[in-house]
Amino acid sequence: MVEFFRAGGPFMFLLLLTSIVGLTFIVERGLALRWNRVVPLSVEKALDDFQAGQDISILKQICLLKPSALSRQPFRFSSLVRSCALVRIVRAAPFQYLNQ
């Protein structure tokens, strides 16, 4: 393998460096975007328990108390319904849509 790097010259070392940097970013984003940090359990439970006719202020208050990527979404009913549906789909079959 060392012979390949020598044959490739300086461009091979640049390729190795960019691969290491890219892999570092992938690992860092994977750790930063864990499911519990994007969708805290309390926000997920509040979305699951929310009924269409209920007052949205309770859900809004829970989202304000638990800052996360999902709870920072604009508070429109349609975005909450989409978020709730996405949470339910991913929880039900997390890898089903990756194989299509």
What do you see in this structure?
With about 100 residues, this protein is an all-alpha fold. The chain folds into 2 domains: about 1-30; about 35-95. Helices cover about 70% and strands about 0% of the residues. The chain has 6 helices and no strands. Helix 1 packs across helix 2 (about 10-30). The longest helix is centred in the N-terminal third of the chain and has 23 residues, at about 10-30.
Indicate the proportion of strand residues: under 5%
Identify the overall geometry.
elongated
Low-confidence runs = none
| Number of helices, counting only DSSP H or I runs of 4 residues or more | 6
Helix content: 55-70%
Query: Gap between N and C termini, in Å?
Result: 36 Å
Compute the number of strand runs: 0
Q: What's the SSE pattern? A: HHHHHH
Name the structural class: mainly alpha
Largest sheet data: none
Furnish the topology, listing elements before pairings:
Elements: H1 2-8, H2 10-32, H3 35-38, H4 41-49, H5 56-65, H6 77-92
Helix pairs in contact: 1-2
Quick recap of the structure?
The protein is mainly alpha-helical and 100 residues long.
Defining key terms:
mainly alpha, elongated
